[in-house]
Specification:
The complex is a heterodimer. By secondary structure, chain A is an alpha/beta fold. Chain A is built from 12 helices and 12 strands. In chain A, helix 5 crosses helix 9 and helix 6 packs across helix 9. By secondary structure, chain B is mainly beta. Helices cover 0% and strands 40% of the residues of chain B. Chain B is built from no helices and 9 strands. The chains are: A alpha/beta, B mainly beta. At the A-B interface, helix 4, helix 5, strand 5 and strand 9 of A face strand 5, strand 6 and strand 7 of B.
Chain lengths: 381, 144
């Protein structure tokens, strides 16, 4: 199997952009990624486009050039961008293509996402009764986790405050103003124990990456970053998951745990080797839980680690250095490629004011979303 | 006043002791809720109808403090909406079910607290019909 290098990344800022279409944002992100890679669009042999709101992400080729290449549209909930990345990597690993693009884009209205629960395999009444809300699942999950593992409300506030602080250092972020822990704790409760400022918001944006066979990466760049693993897992019986009317008494690990273990095995890398981390922080509690689910600490250690500043940009476990979902919002199809964009900048030493000190070598990204799907990517210099 | 269940086949009602209608797989014995076309654990079609315990314990919980968007059909406005509790209730050693809680005050909700099934009004339609749904109430409150 061919090894895979990420030779270019591009991003359209995340936020709200009036009438500008998701396709136009995706075209800008893809152009930026190609320019970063030193690749002309006609050199791209295959592309994968992820989106929730756009039916046909392949419309982006009408902006970039009608070269006739295979372009596959993917949607996989909050793991959409990780799926596009994995498919692009697999296309190269198979030996069939040398240069591939993964691009994600979305344009959501303000407020929580909504959909027909029937399309998620749930009964229609699940939505009509007010259960079809991801936010209340995250509230229930972190509430039990706090009870079991001694996590405080203050820790949730510290996680959100870090996101806003890092977002202030990121010119592409949606939320760029620091918010105090007191303001976060005092904000409107949405789903106990999670307040308004502890949640990310669906918004707009796009991100792209150019991948190639590792053995030809030096043609394009002197700073290739290698994709060491890309894994996806769905929920098993026994995991308590979003959008479910029931859960088993017999408990199994969340899909993130399985995706993470598989990724470490595929990469031949362990959590101790990781220098910079991107986690799905749909809410502040999710970041806390995902620190443990991805092997970066034991359950409950987050209370001390967060208090000690371990997850800050200058700490030993820097998490969501670009502000994560809380500061960037979540254009669902683009979110995972935003994570990859940030990791590539960090590993190249190009992250500016938010650069992790000490030349990070290994980056780690995790996505989790409805109806219980997780994706993990590991990159290294 | 006329009362109707919001969805048939989800709970036994009217009944003195209403119960949630779940499913039990004939092959792997997994108990799930509601009764769907196949067993979520092993995929075996047509699991058997299986009534769930009326009493349980609160495994985890949250509050719903904002008015859900469509397809929510509670009929409230921003002005009339009142927060409600939502929990994952463990029924015996069989299954945990997601359900509304009649209590929405975090100070009055606790992990492991005893709760029991209650059939409660969900909304009142224009013709006065009360649409009823299932919820769990703190044990001993006698709400039906």
């Amino acid at each position: 199997m061919e090894d895979v290098a990420v030779i270019g990344v591009g991003l359209h800022p995340f936020g709200r952009f009036g009438p500008k279409s998701a396709i136009d944002m995706a075209a800008e992100a893809t152009r930026a990624a190609c320019a970063d890679a030193g690749v002309d669009w006609p050199d791209v042999q295959v592309a994968f486009g992820g989106s929730y709101t756009v039916d046909n992400p392949d419309a982006v080729i009408g902006r970039l050039g009608l070269t006739g290449i295979p372009f596959m549209d993917v949607y996989n909930g909050c793991a959409t961008a990780a799926t596009a990345l994995q498919l692009a990597a697999d296309a190269i690993r198979s030996g069939r293509y040398d240069v591939a693009v993964a691009v994600g884009m979305d344009k959501h209205d303000a407020g929580a996402l909504t959909a027909d629960p029937v399309d998620y395999g749930a009964p229609a009444w699940y939505g009509e009764m007010g259960y079809f809300l991801t936010t209340k699942f995250f509230g229930m999950k972190i509430n039990r986790y706090m009870h079991d593992h001694g996590i405080s409300h203050e820790t949730l506030a510290k996680v959100a405050a870090k996101a806003f602080r890092n977002g202030a250092l990121n010119p592409n972020a949606f939320r760029r103003k620091p918010v105090t822990e007191e303001a976060i704790l005092g904000a409107r409760m949405l789903n106990y124990p999670l307040t308004q400022y502890m949640f990310c918001a669906p918004d707009e944006g796009a991100a792209a990456a150019v991948l190639c066979r590792a053995d030809i990466a030096s043609r394009y760049t002197s700073t290739p970053v290698y994709l060491r693993a890309a894994t996806l897992r769905t929920r098993r019986y026994g995991a308590h998951e979003v959008h479910s009317t029931w859960a088993a008494v017999e408990q199994d690990d969340a899909p993130t745990v399985y995706a993470s273990r598989a990724a470490y095995e595929e990469a031949g890398i362990g959590p101790d080797d990781v220098d910079v981390i991107q986690l799905q922080d749909t809410d502040a509690g999710a970041e806390v839980i995902h620190m443990a689910e991805n092997g970066f600490c034991a359950d409950g250690d987050q209370e001390r680690l967060v208090a000690d500043g371990a997850t800050e940009i200058g700490g030993p476990l820097p998490v969501n250095t670009d502000g994560g979902l809380i500061a960037n919002g979540e254009p669902v199809g683009a979110s995972g490629l935003r994570q990859v964009h940030e990791l590539v900048l960090q590993l190249r030493g190009q992250a500016g004011e938010r650069q992790v000190p000490g030349t990070p070598r290994v980056g780690y990204a995790q996505l989790y979303g409805a109806p219980g799907t997780a994706g993990v990517s590991i990159l290294s210099r | 006043m006329t009362q109707v269940a919001f969805a048939p086949d989800v709970f036994t009602w009217p009944a003195d002791e209403p119960q949630l209608i779940g499913a039990k797989c004939a092959r792997c014995a997994a108990v799930t809720f509601p009764r769907g076309p196949s067993c979520p654990r092993c995929g075996t079609p047509d699991p058997e109808r299986h009534l769930l315990a009326r009493q349980g314990t609160l495994w985890t919980w949250t509050t719903q403090d904002f008015l859900p968007k469509e397809p929510y059909a509670g009929g409230e406005t921003l002005e009339t909406f009142r927060p409600y509790g939502v929990g994952l209730v463990q029924l015996g050693d069989e299954v945990r079910v997601e359900a509304r809680l009649t209590e929405a005050d975090p100070a009055k909700l606790d992990f492991g607290m005893e709760v029991e099934l209650a059939i409660v009004p969900f909304r009142v339609d224009e013709d006065g019909t009360e649409v009823m749904t299932y919820a769990f109430a703190p044990a001993g409150e006698g709400i039906r």
